[in-house]
């Protein structure tokens, strides 16, 4: 089954979403860490009140995590799950 075109397509679709999203998030995360270590003056700059850029970007990490989760669920429901279900049914001989 792993050599089948359907499985290869499923794997390709999955990787086309997951790898770029993972790289983008890691770059975003390490940028935050690097800024926290090397740009302390910038991270300590107040945006408004006692809210600093460090806090804004740190909270942005949480927002980004939830956004990526939302996007992945939507992607999986539209692209991955129907293909996986089709492969499962084929492997089980069409039994639901």
UniProtKB/TrEMBL annotation:
<keyword id="KW-0472">Membrane</keyword>
<feature type="transmembrane region" description="Helical">
    <location>
        <begin position="51"/>
        <end position="73"/>
    </location>
</feature>
<keyword id="KW-1133">Transmembrane helix</keyword>
<dbReference type="Pfam" id="PF04341">
    <property type="entry name" value="DUF485"/>
</dbReference>
<dbReference type="InterPro" id="IPR007436">
    <property type="entry name" value="DUF485"/>
</dbReference>
<feature type="transmembrane region" description="Helical">
    <location>
        <begin position="16"/>
        <end position="39"/>
    </location>
</feature>
<protein>
    <recommendedName>
        <fullName>Clumping factor B</fullName>
    </recommendedName>
</protein>
<keyword id="KW-0812">Transmembrane</keyword>
């Amino acid at each position: 089954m792993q050599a089948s075109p359907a499985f290869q397509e499923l794997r390709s679709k999955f990787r086309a979403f997951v790898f770029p999203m993972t790289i983008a998030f890691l770059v975003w995360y390490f940028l935050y860490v690097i800024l926290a270590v090397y740009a302390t003056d910038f991270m300590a700059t107040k945006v408004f009140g006692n809210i600093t850029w460090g806090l804004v970007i740190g909270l942005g990490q949480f927002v980004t995590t939830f956004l990526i989760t939302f996007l992945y669920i939507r992607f999986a429901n539209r692209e991955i799950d129907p293909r996986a279900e089709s492969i499962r049914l084929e492997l089980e001989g069409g039994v639901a």
